[in-house]
What we know:
Mean pLDDT: 89
Largest sheet: none
CATH topology: Globin-like
Shape: elongated
Order of helices and strands: HHHHHHHH
Number of domains: 1
Number of strands: 0
Distance between the termini: 83 Å
Bound molecules: protoporphyrin IX containing FE
Structural class: mainly alpha
Amino acid sequence: MHKPRSWTASLIALIWLATVAGVASAGPQKSLYERLGGYDAVAAVVDDFLGRMIADKQLGRFFAGLGDDRKHRARQVTVDFVCEATGGPCYYTGRDMKTTHKGMGITAADWNLAVGHLKATLAKFKVPAQEQKEVLDLIGGLRDQVVDQAP
Ligand code: HEM
């Protein structure tokens, strides 16, 4: 004899299976590092950002007098820092942000300029809005460790 309830049960089971399969095929969320495009993309973003800071009339003073080797090292550990912080396979071996920047006299105004440069870099590389937000949140969280002087 035909049981209408068994149709309902089958339909529910089908919907449940489709949902589970859908969730499974979506997989885990990719890391920010992967979504940015991996190592080369992170390195390109850091290079562009540092280049803008060094060329800036107000921020350039922090880098004046640093030899090429010092700049190369700072660039490399910054790539490692961002790579690790975004979930990449790198291991940051530099100093912590407070120790590194303490005593440089970086002001809130300097910081705002730097954030402006970072936004310009992310726009230049056409980083999608969601990833831009995540990068800006990540870097924004470092503000109090980098800024050591009232404006
Ligand atoms: C107004 C903003 C900033 C200024 C003016 C600034 C300036 C500098 C300078 C001049 C150095 C070179 C120190 C040296 O080798 O003697 C340095 C090192 C470094 N900065 Fe910044 N910085 C700023 C923001 C940031 C941010 C947002 C990050 C995070 C991505 C960062 C990460 C680093 C790292 C990883 C180093 C190297 C640490 C080490 O030597 O162990 N900086 N910074």
